[in-house]
Amino acid sequence: MVQAYCEAIEDLCNGEAAAFRWSLTLITKILTRVILEGSTVVMKAINTNQELAVRQAVAVAPRGKRAMRVLSVSVGTQTISPLYWAIDSGRLSCAKAIIEDLLTIRADRDVYYYGCEALFTRHPEIVQKMCMSAPSLLIALLDGLVWRSRLTKDGSRRVNLYIKHLVQDSAGVFSPTLQWLVRYKDPKIMSHLVVALTTDLIWSRFAAFQFLRNKFWFVITLGVFFVSQSILKEQTGVEESFEANVARFVLRMWLYLASLCGLCSFVRDVASEIYRGKVMRISIVAIPKSFTDVKQVGRLALTWVLILMLFFEPILRCSSKWTDSHSQYLLFTTRCGVEEEIRMYSIFSAIGMVLFWLLLTDCTVFSMRLSAFLLVCGWVVVEVGLFLLALTFLILTFSTALSSLQHNLVEFDGAMTWVSALTQMAFGMFPASDFDATKKDLPIFICLTLFTALATVFLMNLLIAQLAESYSSMFADMTGFARLNRAGVVVSVLAEARPARFAKFLRTLNLEDRLEFNEGDLGPAGGIQIHEPANEHTVTEDSILRYGGPTAPSVPWPEDDRKVEESVEEKLQHVENRLASMEKLLTKMAKSKGTGDSPSKAPSTCSDISQ
Question: Smallest Cα–Cα separation from 97: which of 82, 108, 110?
């Protein structure tokens, strides 16, 4: 940089030395200005990494500018956020003190002061920042958005939730805050009152109807598939009907047309993701992000199953028969000697039916209990898969070993025969008569006994223990994972919603209206009010700090008498200072005794120590 300054100033000065001196002077002035203007009392307090120092530095700020003192520091045309500085430098105790100070409601005789609006206006991506760099601050942030009344009425208390910036951004569209929390995937955060109520509010008043409308056509398609493949299925030994053939053909063609349209839509979405760079790289292979969603993969698999059904469609295979005017076959018949194609078609039909019902499990999002149960089932399936993998390894090990033994059991000759027999033994389906035949060969009998012990005693009990432990660990966060699933559905639905309809939903929330604290006490706007049972949370003190005296915005708040909890470092420093003072006192006592002081002074000295 100095070289660049020298080259730029060299034409304006007599020599290189003068240009170098002038450039260094300019750099010095710039750095001095940055240090002087940027070193505010708040920034100095943050550098000490002491929560108490930050609170004391903020306390001297005027009440009207207190929020901006911890959110913005300007140096020329550049600004820096002390809050972000504390987070990026790892001084999370200072950042927590700033968050708590901003989200503390203070009131004088004229107006309420609440830093929520200033925080989200200055840092609309604060939740994303915390998810990435300071997850421990999320609870402090969300707790600051809740106010609970100290007073109760009819067994309930008022609760104000300031969720405006979790629902909408500054432009009035859906805020990405919920999407960031979904990506963070913390069930405890999703179970927090603020996030849970925000999700339920958007779901019940907006997203549920949109989701149900999107699922309506899928349910109709499932009904058409069931009728065409099960009810109108061609039955052997029953006389075919012209009306049934026509209905079957129309319904199946409708399914195939829908599958081709779905395939085109999926290809378009994948191409759009690749074009916009929304891909994940596994080694050197780039995979679109839609392929990481199990539901999207299931829809793609269902589309390909329907296309394969179209390829093996018996009606089309018999088209040469029923299109012939002199043919004896009915229109759209399947009885033309294509039994092999019908067999393959029925297999893909069964697979398609299973995929249809599995994809319909999305509707469990309407119930938290059903959604939580489904998630638990998916969680324990992993343990079952590990059990089956271990069992497969055990079967292959013993089947290959048994096929290597020399024996006279003709019915158990070959490795594949042993694989089938051991599989039946593992699941308790092996005939007892065949097992008695193995007793004639001692080595075979010993191997089978060892396999049975390992498969049914060891592996089965291990599976039970794993399922019990997995369920117990999942049970604590079961509701949180269910809420996380619902929030993901809400985010996906809102991504496709029309802005006009979302704006209409926002108007029903009345987020611009001021909320009442207690009766007749209007506070800040930007939230909604609910009532919760009085025994759900114990509130002994009003969280609003009320002050008398002057009400001018330029006057700082009076000193806060609340006791600030000391950090571990501050407690250790306090103990160290007390020990140092006691050491000095004991040294003074030793010197006084050594010089022949009277013993009568000892009690007063001991009293000093006790003080």
Answer: 82
Among candidate residues 159, 196, 111, the one with its CA nearest the CA of residue 484: 196
Q: Could you tell me if residue 217 is inside a domain? A: yes
- 17 assigned to some structural domain: no
Per the structure, how many domains does the chain have? 1
Q: Are 455 and 421 in contact (CB under 8 A)?
A: no
Residue 611: the pLDDT is 35
Model confidence over 220-279: pLDDT tens digits? 888 988 988 888 877 766 777 778 888 888 888 888 888 888 778 878 877 787 777 777
Q: Answer yes or no: is 143 within a domain.
A: no
In angstroms, rounded to a whole number, what is the distance separating the alpha carbons of residues 206 and 502? 8
- DSSP letter for each residue of 525-556: ES-EEEEEETTTS---S-SSEE--S---TTSB
The conformation of residue 168, written as its DSSP 8-state character, comes to: B
Rounded distance, CA 420 to CA 514, Å? 73
Residues 51-83 have pLDDT tens digits of: 888 888 888 888 888 888 888 887 666 788 889
Long-range Cβ contacts of 509-513 (<8 Å, 24+ apart): 509/167, 509/201, 511/164, 511/167, 511/168
Instruction: Give the pTM.
Output: 0.76
Q: Which residues of the chain have pLDDT under 50?
A: 563, 598-611
Which tokens in the block code for residue 438? Answer: 């193995």
Identity of the residue numbered 388: L
Amino acid at the residue 528: I
Range of the domain at 339: 204-366
With H, G, I as helix, E, B as strand and everything else as coil, classify residue 574: helix
Phi, psi of 296 (to 5 degrees): -65, -40
Q: CA 266, CA 356: separation in Å to the nearest integer? A: 17
- What sign does the CA torsion over 408, 411, 415, 419 have? negative
Spatial neighbors of 95 by CB under 8 A, at least 6 apart, are: 83, 86, 87, 134, 137
The encoded tokens of residue 478 equal 């079961």
For the chain, the straight-line distance linking the first and the last C-alpha, in angstroms and rounded, comes to 60
Q: Is the dihedral of CA 18, 24, 28, 30 positive or negative?
A: positive
CA nearest neighbour of 99 among 161, 61, 142: 142
561 token code pair: 């008498």
Strand partners, 279: 288
Query: Is residue 361 in a domain?
Result: yes
